[in-house]
Amino acid sequence: MTPRDASDDSRWSDLDRPPLNAAALRRALVRPGGLWSDVEVVQRTGSTNSDLVARAEQGKAAEGAVLVAEEQSAGRGRLDRRWTAPARSGLFFSVLLTPAEVPVARWGWLPLLTGVAVATGLSRAAGVDTALKWPNDLLVTVGGEERKAGGILAERAGEHGVVVGVGINVTLRADELPVPQAGSLALAGAVSTDRDPLLRAVLRSLADWYGRWRAAGGDPAACGLQETYAAGCATLGRPVRAQLPGNRSISGEAVAVDGDGRLVLATEDGVQEPVGAGDIVHLRPA
Predict the structure, then answer these.
(1) S-S: 131 plus which of 6, 14, 44, 234, CB 3.0-4.6 Å?
(2) What is the spatial distance between Cα 273 and Cα 5, in angstroms, rounded to a whole number?
(3) Model confidence over 183-216: pLDDT tens digits?
(4) What pLDDT, in 10s, does the model give residues 79-137?
(5) What is its EC number (predicted)?
(6) Count of alpha carbons within 13 Å of 57, Cβ hemisphere only?
(7) At 50, phi and psi to the nearest 5?
(8) Distance between CA atoms of residues 26 and 17, nearest Å
(9) Do the beta carbons of residue 147 and residue 139 sit within 8 Å?
(10) Quick one: 234 exposed, middle or buried, by C-beta within 10 A (0-12, 13-18, 19+)?
(11) Is 162 exposed, middle or buried (0-12, 13-18, 19+ CB in 10 A)?
C-alpha cells in the first residue's frame, strides 16, 4: 500500500482548495545557483514568520528558505494585527533573506520590493491587477472598490537576516471575509486561483527583484525598484492621513516615495514631511 502524505487527511475536504504539493514546488524552485534553497509546506502553524525567525536565529535555516503554511492560527500583520483565513484559502509564507552586500540602512526597502514582486507575479499568473498601499498592503478591485487582499511583514532575524512574510487571500469567498474592506483574488476576477502556479510566479518574481536590488548594493533607483514601486503605488497622488507613533497624525497629499522608502506627504502648511513608519489611511478627496 502506498504511504499517504500527511496532507491527504484533508485533501478532499474542500474541492476548491486542494493542498499544495511541496515536492513539486521544490522541483520547480530549488535550483543550483538560485536563491531558493528549500521549500517546506506545513499543514498548520501559529506564524510562519515566527517559526522562520526562530530557525534563523538558531542557525537552522539558510538564505532562501521558504516556509509555507496551509493555515495559520496566529498570523500577524504590521502593528501586531491578526491575520486569519480558512485553511488552504490563500498563500501564507515566509522567506529568509541575508543581503550581506546591502547596507543595513537600505534593508527597509525589502517589504516594498516584496510588494512589487508579488504584484508582478500575480499579474502574470492570476491576471489580476494588484496595487500597493504604502508600506505593505496589497490591494485588488472588487465591485469597483479597493479591497485589501494581502499584506507583507518584514522582521529581523539575528544580525544578518531578514524574514519577509506574505499573506494573500486567494479563494476567500464573500461570506468568509474577516472585514468588509477585505478582498481576494477570486473576488477580483482572477483567471486562475491554483495556488501552486501562483506561489511559483510570486517566488520567481521575488528572486528576480531581490537579485537586481542586491546587485545594485540596495540602491533602489539604480535597480529600477523605486520607479516601479511608485508606478504601482495606489497611495501616491492621494490625500492621506498618517497615524504616527505617540498618537500623532499628519494629513496631506502623498507625493513621493523617497530614496529611503519613506512616504513623503505635502501638508497644507507647504511642508514636505517624510513618514518612515505609521498607519496610512486613504482619504476621499474633498
Answers:
(1) 234
(2) 54
(3) 999 999 999 999 999 999 999 999 999 999 999 9
(4) 455 667 899 999 999 999 999 999 999 999 999 999 999 999 999 999 999 999 999 99
(5) 6.3.4.15
(6) 11
(7) -60, -40
(8) 20
(9) yes
(10) middle
(11) buried
